[in-house]
Amino acid sequence: MANVKAAIPKGTRDFGPVEMIRRNYIFDTIKKVFKKYGYQEIQTPTMENLDTLTGKYGDEGDQLIFKVLNSGDFLNQKVLDQVGLITQQLDTAGIELGDIRDDDTEMRSIKLLNNEKSFNNIMKPMEHYRTLSKKIAPQISEKALRYDLTVPFARYVVMHQNEITSPFKRFQIQPVWRADRPQKGRYREFYQCDADVVGSDSLLNEAEFVCIYDEALTHLGLKDFTIKINNRKILSGIAELIGKPDMIIDLTVAIDKLDKIGLDGVEKELLEKGFDKKELDILKPVILLSGNNQEKLNSLKEILSNSMIGLKGIEEIDKVFSYLQNFSIRTAKVELDLTLARGLNYYTGCIFEVKTNEAAMGSIGGGGRYDDLTGMFGKEGLTGVGISFGADRIYDVLEELQLFSASNQQSTQVLICVFGEAEEAFAIPILNILRTAEINTELFPFGAKMKKQMQYANDKQIPFVVIIGGDEMQSGLLSLKNMESGEQEKLSIQEILTKLKNLG
Amino acid sequence: MANVKAAIPKGTRDFGPVEMIRRNYIFDTIKKVFKKYGYQEIQTPTMENLDTLTGKYGDEGDQLIFKVLNSGDFLNQKVLDQVGLITQQLDTAGIELGDIRDDDTEMRSIKLLNNEKSFNNIMKPMEHYRTLSKKIAPQISEKALRYDLTVPFARYVVMHQNEITSPFKRFQIQPVWRADRPQKGRYREFYQCDADVVGSDSLLNEAEFVCIYDEALTHLGLKDFTIKINNRKILSGIAELIGKPDMIIDLTVAIDKLDKIGLDGVEKELLEKGFDKKELDILKPVILLSGNNQEKLNSLKEILSNSMIGLKGIEEIDKVFSYLQNFSIRTAKVELDLTLARGLNYYTGCIFEVKTNEAAMGSIGGGGRYDDLTGMFGKEGLTGVGISFGADRIYDVLEELQLFSASNQQSTQVLICVFGEAEEAFAIPILNILRTAEINTELFPFGAKMKKQMQYANDKQIPFVVIIGGDEMQSGLLSLKNMESGEQEKLSIQEILTKLKNLG
Asked: Which of A311, B122, B170, B332 has the most CB atoms in a 10 Å sphere around its CB?
């Protein structure tokens, strides 16, 4: 068997012991809060049927779905015929297909875009390969990797509708896969961490999601973060106000970018999309509304007084705020942000986004209400609302703010080091005593130099070492070394136990 | 968007709330024990490079690896040329390729195997599709789904050798995927749960793995299980004894089946493999050795007195047993089983297998020592030993023995039911108090009939319901209903808190 280089696919990651402890700490903290609010965990398979996923994420999303090759003889006559047919069409069109690889082409195409001959030689075949690949893919691949947790959840709800208690409150923490071009902070495999409730239109759910964000992020040690809230119906009201109710999507896409491109940029984009100067003059004061949440709502009530849907949105936000007055928010600032739009078109009511104010980082969470999640699987009109924690970003924030605890009760607490075989035998009953007391303990097998054993304790950040040599065996008093302070003392096993228990 | 049937790929599973609690309970119990013994968690990516996996699991295994289609334009001229070339070869060979699907063919081939013409018409093209698929697959797929945790672990050790503290004790609990034909109890996605240590040849590790099995399975509630232990070197010694050292694999494969096919079956298989009657007469008393472990070892020492490797194996087992005398085994019977062989050829020392004696179930765990795990990635001579828990089977055993606890502190403990909007507002501070006391509590949003709310509590197996109506608001005494006993009493929130805390 030829040697193979030890490597992993680009955009994927190994998680070593330290990262795992930290990731588990984040997930466990969030899970505990989800459970406190009555959310139950489910898991769905890594692979879904390709047709479950296709068409749910737009054309661009479809291209980013990882497809799994059918097992066995995926190439049969039907596939071959189709490959032949399409290839023949290309031949007929007189297109010469060179041996071109995707990456090369994208590089070259940038250089050659203005050169028509080269463009035809390279881009045309490229387009045809793309067409061919798109057409053949579903014929040789029936399954695909989960792209998000939302569509599998919708599929789950419909498939298990007879077992489910409504309202169904579920959380799900699993990896998802996207064939995105990998870059710093963007991976092809990453975890999503979602909670959703379907079958309840009460705004209590929205209010509790604010509480869940507040409680989980507070437990994780964040001290300054903002939960932004808006309502799609208010945005619809604004679109009505400026007389362009049909252009709600263009409008939201543009104002969603206010943070990044500024007011001028938003105006420019809207003008390009066909809004006129007069309309922008109506829009501007609305999205720039200042004051506290109540002041903003009061102004909005007047501004949108002629829009039924706008007033409905205001009423919903009002209700959420009134719930929140009775809940005790610990840390979060809750802010009505009329520029918050969130790209996803399936949102229909309240929308959320969470930002930390302590580190430069995009949103660390978001979500909203949708009115028809399961329609795509034949069950219409089921309302839902959900949120998501951006676990990878939260990890980076906690690392930057040094909020990961240095000590870790989950790892080995004591390493027993011995000088030889007799000491090893002597050590085993001591090992038993410590483990029986639920103290994570290792015995370094005899045969290694003491220096190597100490290095092992250091590398694994084990806080205490028990050293056993001839003296210790004779006296029964063991040397306990505190690896941080370097302090060393001779104690009976009972004293060691008491000392460690008091620390833990 | 056309409606799609809500379904999942065959051989995969959704895990609902109850299953998740039970699965997490199993994994958490095992994890806790792994950690107690100094094992650290790692995770590797779902996708590995295809060449990392290919050739590690035999030809049959290679066919069962799920391959991921390259993203983007996976079909390029190189692939097309090759498809064309192979198809042309088939044409030249005069083979007519009909539109044949894999499943059909296997069915038909059984019926038609004796009909030469049909065989040629169907099986020949099939073979060619197989050849074609095998050749094209690696050209359109660079990545594949993890097939087990062992090869990714070996890859991890080599890739991260400079960060790793030796001996490296890791555990890993992640799903793996195999394109096996699904059947009862065999899935295409299932979890493996492995612990391994590399870089230490001490038999203390073997002894501790016995302790880990004992402790974890005891915690899970099993009361009667056997950890079988053997040593590959003893099996080699036996092969030497009968003068067929080169046929160790045929020998072990056959005696591994003693349980299933009986002594006659084993003898029959060995005769077919080329062993003769005289050799079997030597073998028989050895594998049928009776007595306790020490008696068996004593007999073996005499029988294998001329086999260096056999004696080495006996010495290793002896040492493990002597360690185990100092450890306190709680529940397990530890048994030297000379017929235990375990199929995998990479084992070189001690091997383990765990069986429950309370339920009819195959092995619920196994493992052993291997001397060169990482050689395939260019790092030779690293010794390791590891074990695996069969989580799905353990789940089935616990279910059969009714060992899953009925009560579950992780789920919602209290549901607050209200008659109307005023009661809902009144309930929120109570909700806060219970949650602040770390009691998982839900408030059913107002608007639903009391019967529906009670049904919700029943379905979710919520043990307590607090009912708030007009009376309760006036008196401040809330109705607490025990959902199991049906008992109902009026208590202040403080009394409720005390009561629930005492139960928890």
From this structure: B170
